[in-house]
Amino acid sequence: MGKNKLARFAENKILPNVIQPTREDALNGFDLKGKWRENFFKNDNPVVLELGCGKESIL
């Protein structure tokens, strides 16, 4: 397991802008599925998803 991964997962639980559903939630129907704009962002702007992984580079 990656360095400090468990600490980062624990931190995700207290951050207000991080959604981390359980496996069961993801498989059995997630409350926000198809309703992100209305129920989470509360606006009509388009939703853009950016995914990334890896290390941050410090220059």
Overview of this structure, please?
The chain is mostly helical and 59 residues long. It is 34% helix and 0% strand. The chain is built from 3 helices and no strands. The longest helix has 8 residues, at 5-12. The radius of gyration is 15 Å and the shape is extended. It starts with a helix and ends in an 18-residue tail after the last helix.
Question: How do the helices and strands line up, and which of them pair or pack?
Answer:
Blueprint: H1 5-12, H2 23-28, H3 36-41
Query: Separation of termini?
Result: 26 Å
How much helical structure, as a percent, in the residues?
Answer: 25-40%
Q: Please give the count of helices.
A: 3
Radius of gyration: 15 Å
The structural class is mainly alpha
| Biggest sheet layout | none
Order of helices and strands: HHH
Low-confidence stretches: none
Shape summary? extended
Round the mean pLDDT to the nearest integer and report it: 82
Q: Name the beta content range.
A: under 5%
Number of strands: 0
